[in-house]
Amino acid sequence: MKLDAIDLRILEAIQKDGRITKLALAEKAGLSPTPCWLRLRKLEKAGIVTGYHARLAMRRVTPVTSVLTEITLGNHRQTDFERFERVVASVPEIVACWSVGGGVDYILKIMTPDVDAYQRLIDGLLDRELGIDRYFTYIVTKTVKEETLLPLTSLLPQTP
């Protein structure tokens, strides 16, 4: 789907405020409400807008430990990757998983109440015999930047 400037304004506006009213969104997009809403629905149906979420300040709710974990599997068959990814998708504490190139196979972002809970989670993964050859743990001591807004204008090709 080719996006125009109006689509981009809509996407930028809903990224900043997923609860924006139809009228306010239309004003930001430079359209009347009905055509603006129809465009938003088209972006949703195309799978460009995949959902609306609230950002939580978890540390205000409960203590939390964020951990980045590098995982290397012992075997690199497609079935090994698929089995590992299926299990990862089912563990709620694993909030992100990236398959990466280079010296490791995956990088996980895991959130647990404390380091002990993290270790129990890792031990549970190891007990499931998922083919984990080694893992490295990095405890997040301070979040410097964690942005949820995607930089649309700098990611899209510039038109001459």
Task: Describe the fold and architecture.
With 160 residues, this protein is of the alpha+beta class. It has helices at residues 5-16, 22-29, 33-45, 58-61, 78-90, 115-127, 152-155, and strands at residues 65-73, 94-99, 106-112, 132-139. β2 and β3 form a beta hairpin. It is elongated.
Question: Would you kindly provide a brief summary of this structure?
Answer:
This protein is of the alpha+beta class and 160 residues long. The protein is built from 7 helices and 4 strands.
Topology:
Blueprint: H1 5-16, H2 22-29, H3 33-45, H4 58-61, E1 65-73, H5 78-90, E2 94-99, E3 106-112, H6 115-127, E4 132-139, H7 152-155
Antiparallel strand pairs: 1-3, 1-4, 2-3
Helix pairs in contact: 1-2, 2-3
Amount of beta strand: 15-25%
The order of strands across the largest sheet is 2-3-1-4
Q: What is the CA-CA span between the terminal residues? A: 20 Å
> What string, H for helix and E for strand, traces the elements in order?
HHHHEHEEHEH
Q: Major beta sheet, specifics?
A: 4 strands, antiparallel
Give the number of DSSP strands: 4
Number of helices: 7
Categorize the overall geometry. Answer: elongated
- Overall pLDDT: 94
